[in-house]
Amino acid sequence: MSAPRIPGNDFGVLAPPALGEWEPRLSVSVVVPARQGQDRLDLTLAALAAQTYPSHLLEVIVVDDGSEPPLRLPEIAPERTRIVRAAPGGWGIAWALESGVAVADGEVIHRVDADIVSYREHVEAHMRWHHLADYLVVLGTLRFTAAGGTPPTPAEVQIAVAKDKADALFEEDPEHGHHWIDELVAAHRGFRDAPSSLLHRVHVGATVSLPAALLRGAGGMDTSLTLGEDTELGYRLTQAGAVFVPEAEALCWHLGTTTAMRRTAEVRRHNDPFIADRVPYRRNLRTDGGRQWLVPYAEVVVDATDASFEDVRASMDGALASTLPDVHVTVTGPWGSLTGGRRAPLDDPLLDLRLVRGQYAHDGRVSFAEKVPPTSFPAPFRLTCPPGWVPGAESLAMLIEQAEREDEGLLLVALEETESGVAAARLERTAAVARALRVAAPGESLDDVIADLYGATWVDAESWRFRPAASAYPSWASNRNREAVRWRAEAESRKREAERARRQVETLKAELRELRAAAAKGRRDTLRWKEKAEQRRLEAVALRKAQQRSQRRSLLSRAARRLRGLADGPR
Fold it and tell me: pTM of this prediction?
């Protein structure tokens, strides 16, 4: 596997080989989480037994998540298939998957649910991508079976799949499917133009594959989740720099509908709190004021190593007063040097560091670190702010909005020019930095790689509301949230205005619908009366013609009587 440079999610720069016309070399572990459902599992394994991918490179691990009676290995299954029990201490799909991955030998992990019947080239269609790059997440294409009918036997499934006739195994359900995924893919040029904040939405776990190293590097499955684990993992894979590839030729049948299809509102109600806590991109789920979240939307880093307490405090207070509610501040410095030994409190050479720690030690939104890791994973953004410069309450939100608008990887805020160069604050997209770290050559500038893959832009401090501490602090130090409150009030006012406008628009739409209905009724009435008028006209014409015929017959009758009278003569 290799690390070619893929800009954004544009996997179109890769050229996968045609199915059946290449030589695989990577091993794959197909991990199947299962609980009960032996009959469906038998069909899943029968289809996997007929795959075109070389059997010596394919293993199947069925993870039995507490089935009673325990699941058994059927007669028809791939050569290297085993059933393992989920590790003790947990339960659920995420736990079962993590248990399976822990014992998997494959270089690629391919999750397949226990109610999936794969087409003949399903695994091969996934795997041809993984031979091109080592940070791809490949998503199969699901077709949902219609309810009713007698299911095929495992032997029939194996024969049909082997003969490339999986199409004929089931009747497709016309009312159910992942149409929303199809629409997202189509709307973004086959998903090649999909923005970073959208990628995780198509990560549906029924059939998805990725390098084992990528999965483990992203932290594996969140075993605390019993539902929504695929969405949450998709988010973390985005932050790890993954590229998401919807593979149309990786076809498979889903036996029946999903729980999310049958009980949509209940699943959403269950998942929303857990997803809100872990996926900052779901902004619509983070509308509650005064909240802190497990994963912040942005991390702000301020280095206190060689800075005064006042400068560090100014920068940190500015960040903490952001209009964004989900910001976390990390202050770096040699915190390990702050021992508790006897010292002269006012003459302590480490006094500024002690004051910073004393000021923020009990703030839940602040953490202390000797240094920060290369990215802010799993937070999607990191702002590095030089001490002594204060971001305005709206600065961070404005920068992120700009980055999201263009899906940019790096925004550099030019603060001032010094003898050593231009001092800058920098907003980094976590996914962009992770991707650049993966593909950069030794000694290559990371910023250049980010610019090449995602784009980088310089902006000025004044337009983005950055000010030196001398002009920004301590004018609002007595209440560091005052500016945030002001902007929040402004936002609430704009929200109310927008709501009033929305109601007015709805009223106008309703009136327009009524007018259109009245107009349509008028057109129908006009057409109806026009038809009646035409009918009356035709009736009148027919009546006149009848009268004319009657008059002609009357004249002829009188004339005939006269002629008969003349002929008979007087009597």
Answer: 0.82
